[in-house]
Amino acid sequence: TRKYRVVNNPTVYVGTFIHSPRDDARKLDICEDGAIGVNPDGVIEFVERDVQALDAVLDKYPGYKGADVVRTQPGGTQFFFPGFIDTHIHAPQYPNAGVFGSTTLLDWLNKYTFPTEASFSSLAVARTNYTRCVARTLANGTTTAAYYATIHVPATNLLADICSAAGQRAFVGRMCMDHRGLNPDYYRDETADESVANTCLCIDHIKSIDPSYELVSPIITPRFAPSCTEELLTKLGKLARETNLPCQTHIDENHGEIQLVAELFPEHESYAALYDACGLLMPKTILGHAIHLSNREMELIRDSGAKIAHCPVSNSALTSGGAKVRWLLDCGITVGLGTDVSGGFSVSMLETVRSTALVSRHVAMTDGEHCKLSVEESLYLGTRGGAKVVGLEDKIGGFEVGMEWDAQLIGLEMVRKEEAVEEKAEFAADEVLDKLAFESCREAGPVDVFGWESWEDRVAKWVYNGDDRNTLAVWVKGRKTLFHYPTFIDYDNL
Ligand code: GUN
Ligand code: FE
């Protein structure tokens, strides 16, 4: 079978490495002449800087004699960067990416989302859409994703299988939603007990394919308070504690939603207080959105150790609001980034990093300059921040000895003016340059480097202009992932 298996040789990655320092979001650590040794288990065994001769490094690490070598091209346009960590994405909503019209959260759920998710009762629908979603997120450099699936057990198990086969690190959560008010009759759990029992079936399945949750882990997933009875929320809180599994849900995304929670659960002081009373606020809890938190709710979340998935593309698209990320960070809350497909219209975490910077500027226009998040900080949130949110900060999000090789090779396009002119000297220089400019615009990625840029400038150009054409290769746990649909998954042997 082609199930996930590490079959790598020891590999040395050589060239330029860029990542965020573990404890400093405000700058990037740029290493131009580095060598990183990754063992067959995908674990980083050495990080060497200022490497003059690779042979001298290999002499120091005998296990790497004859190792595979992967180099960034010289010339300052390629670099290794940690894989992105998408802390909030709805895999079954992928077919709707970009389709939301002028809706806001609650009518968006009814018009687009519930009907689409309900269609995953068909395994054929699930296979097509989940394969696309995993392929597309990998192609965009997402090495870890926290997925919400649907209520369907077979489809949710298939999503776990596909992640495992494709080699994407994933948290896969069966959607829990038993309330008879908001949820349509055609798409909900019959009872709280059925919801919990089906969740346990999905946990058992993941245990059977990945017993130590090395790559794929279950995650307890109550949709959000208005979709759940208090009985279900309480039972899921208990299940999360008993199994020590992570948990994910939505909070304070939209004013209408918050109003609904107040009406449905009048005995609780706030949205966060309800989750807390049900045992759902824990260090392993990922709360999506958290746009309209009161001060008291912020304190409850901070004191519980729960983490926040910031979803700027979705928050803008559904006009939910501008989350006060600087405030959350200053309060000591851990924040990562989520695409929130398809509230968010893009599977791209690079787009999400970009929107993090941009939305923070909108917040800054009302709340002050200090709210602006830099390119460096936004990238930190998409890598190191996300790693903390999913509890894997010792494994992923940066390049350090003992961490795992979850990485992407980024390539930008250099405009080679002088060479081009020399090569085709018989033409008038202007003519050649124009011709080349048009050719390279058609063939190359979206980012042009002219040579004068610092590494920080190049990274900023990537963040603001780049896309998946700049992601040349993606590795998870040392294994190069194949993301070209549909040849890479052997469905008969899942
Ligand atoms: N709240 C409840 N369900 C959803 C969902 O699917 N997406 C978003 N963005 N918010 C939700
Ligand atoms: Fe969401």
Automatic annotation (TrEMBL):
One of its GO terms (cellular component) is cytosol. It catalyses: guanine + H2O + H(+) = xanthine + NH4(+). One of its GO terms (molecular function) is guanine deaminase activity. It is an enzyme of class 3 (hydrolase). GO terms for biological process: guanine metabolic process. Its EC number is 3.5.4.3. Its cofactor is Zn(2+). Keywords: Hydrolase, Metal-binding, Zinc. Belongs to the metallo-dependent hydrolases superfamily. ATZ/TRZ family. This is Probable guanine deaminase. The lineage of its organism: Eukaryota, Fungi, Dikarya, Ascomycota, Pezizomycotina.
